[in-house]
Design goal:
Layout (H helix, E strand, L loop, with lengths): L2 E5 L2 E4 L4 E8 L7 E7 L5 E7 L6 E3 L7 E6 L4 E6 L8 E8 L2 H5 L4 E2 L3 E6 L1
Parallel strand pairs: 2-11
Antiparallel strand pairs: 1-3, 3-8, 4-5, 4-9, 5-6, 7-8, 9-10, 9-11
Protein backbone atom coordinates (compact mmCIF):
# COMPACT_ATOMS: atom_id res chain seq x y z
CA UNK A 1 0.00 0.00 0.00
CA UNK A 2 1.35 3.38 -1.01
CA UNK A 3 1.64 5.90 1.82
CA UNK A 4 2.57 9.56 1.70
CA UNK A 5 3.64 11.54 4.75
CA UNK A 6 4.06 15.30 4.60
CA UNK A 7 6.08 17.34 7.07
CA UNK A 8 7.61 20.77 7.49
CA UNK A 9 4.55 22.92 8.00
CA UNK A 10 4.33 25.58 10.64
CA UNK A 11 3.61 29.19 11.53
CA UNK A 12 5.69 31.82 9.77
CA UNK A 13 5.51 35.51 9.02
CA UNK A 14 4.79 37.07 5.65
CA UNK A 15 7.94 37.12 3.55
CA UNK A 16 9.46 34.07 5.24
CA UNK A 17 10.35 30.77 3.63
CA UNK A 18 9.35 27.23 4.44
CA UNK A 19 10.22 23.85 2.93
CA UNK A 20 7.76 21.00 2.95
CA UNK A 21 8.70 17.37 2.46
CA UNK A 22 6.65 14.37 1.41
CA UNK A 23 8.03 10.87 1.85
CA UNK A 24 6.49 8.05 -0.15
CA UNK A 25 6.59 4.41 0.88
CA UNK A 26 5.05 1.20 -0.40
CA UNK A 27 5.55 1.89 -4.07
CA UNK A 28 8.18 2.68 -6.66
CA UNK A 29 8.64 6.39 -6.09
CA UNK A 30 10.41 7.00 -9.39
CA UNK A 31 7.31 5.75 -11.25
CA UNK A 32 5.16 8.59 -9.95
CA UNK A 33 4.48 12.11 -11.03
CA UNK A 34 4.21 14.02 -7.76
CA UNK A 35 1.96 16.95 -7.04
CA UNK A 36 1.30 19.45 -4.30
CA UNK A 37 -2.16 20.77 -3.48
CA UNK A 38 -3.47 23.05 -0.80
CA UNK A 39 -6.78 23.72 0.88
CA UNK A 40 -7.50 26.97 2.63
CA UNK A 41 -10.26 27.26 5.25
CA UNK A 42 -13.67 27.25 3.59
CA UNK A 43 -12.25 26.59 0.12
CA UNK A 44 -11.77 23.64 -2.15
CA UNK A 45 -8.51 21.84 -2.73
CA UNK A 46 -6.28 23.77 -5.12
CA UNK A 47 -3.51 22.50 -7.39
CA UNK A 48 -0.17 24.10 -6.52
CA UNK A 49 2.27 22.32 -8.79
CA UNK A 50 3.70 19.04 -9.99
CA UNK A 51 6.94 17.40 -11.00
CA UNK A 52 7.50 14.57 -13.46
CA UNK A 53 8.97 11.26 -12.31
CA UNK A 54 12.38 12.25 -13.66
CA UNK A 55 12.32 15.74 -12.22
CA UNK A 56 12.87 17.08 -15.73
CA UNK A 57 9.65 19.08 -15.83
CA UNK A 58 7.71 21.06 -13.29
CA UNK A 59 4.40 22.93 -13.44
CA UNK A 60 2.99 25.59 -11.15
CA UNK A 61 -0.24 27.35 -10.47
CA UNK A 62 0.05 31.02 -11.46
CA UNK A 63 -0.20 32.45 -7.96
CA UNK A 64 2.89 30.57 -6.77
CA UNK A 65 4.98 30.79 -9.92
CA UNK A 66 8.35 32.31 -9.12
CA UNK A 67 7.90 31.85 -5.37
CA UNK A 68 7.50 28.10 -4.97
CA UNK A 69 9.82 25.38 -6.28
CA UNK A 70 9.12 21.66 -6.42
CA UNK A 71 11.99 19.20 -6.45
CA UNK A 72 12.44 15.51 -5.77
CA UNK A 73 15.08 13.08 -4.62
CA UNK A 74 14.26 9.66 -6.03
CA UNK A 75 16.96 8.05 -3.89
CA UNK A 76 15.14 9.28 -0.77
CA UNK A 77 11.60 8.72 -2.06
CA UNK A 78 10.93 12.34 -1.23
CA UNK A 79 9.39 15.32 -2.96
CA UNK A 80 9.89 18.85 -1.69
CA UNK A 81 8.03 22.12 -1.88
CA UNK A 82 10.24 25.13 -1.26
CA UNK A 83 8.06 28.15 -0.52
CA UNK A 84 9.60 31.61 -0.55
CA UNK A 85 8.11 35.06 -0.08
CA UNK A 86 5.14 33.57 1.70
CA UNK A 87 1.92 35.56 1.87
CA UNK A 88 -1.04 35.30 4.25
CA UNK A 89 -3.11 33.96 1.36
CA UNK A 90 -0.77 30.96 1.20
CA UNK A 91 -2.23 29.80 4.51
CA UNK A 92 -3.66 26.32 3.96
CA UNK A 93 -3.25 22.65 4.60
CA UNK A 94 -0.75 21.38 2.04
CA UNK A 95 -1.07 17.90 0.60
CA UNK A 96 1.12 15.84 -1.66
CA UNK A 97 -0.28 13.53 -4.29
CA UNK A 98 1.27 10.68 -6.25
CA UNK A 99 -0.04 9.68 -9.66
CA UNK A 100 0.96 7.17 -12.29
CA UNK A 101 0.46 9.89 -14.89
CA UNK A 102 0.47 13.71 -14.85
CA UNK A 103 -3.27 13.68 -15.52
CA UNK A 104 -3.86 11.65 -12.37
CA UNK A 105 -2.06 14.32 -10.40
CA UNK A 106 -3.79 17.25 -12.05
CA UNK A 107 -7.18 15.60 -11.55
CA UNK A 108 -6.37 14.84 -7.94
CA UNK A 109 -6.67 11.08 -8.22
CA UNK A 110 -3.99 8.65 -7.09
CA UNK A 111 -2.55 8.60 -3.57
CA UNK A 112 -2.77 11.34 -0.94
CA UNK A 113 -0.95 12.26 2.21
CA UNK A 114 -2.62 13.50 5.37
CA UNK A 115 -1.54 17.11 4.90
CA UNK A 116 0.56 19.59 6.82
CA UNK A 117 -0.64 22.99 8.03
CA UNK A 118 1.06 26.15 6.83
CA UNK A 119 0.02 29.40 8.47
CA UNK A 120 1.39 32.74 7.31
CA UNK A 121 0.78 35.71 9.55
CA UNK A 122 0.79 39.29 8.27
Amino acid sequence: QVQLVESGGGLVQAGDSLKLSCVVSGGTFSDYTMGWFRQAPGKGREFVGAIYWSGSSTYYEDSVLGRFTISRDNAKNTVYLQMNSLKPEDTAVYYCNAGQTPLEVVHGTGYWGQGTQVTVSS
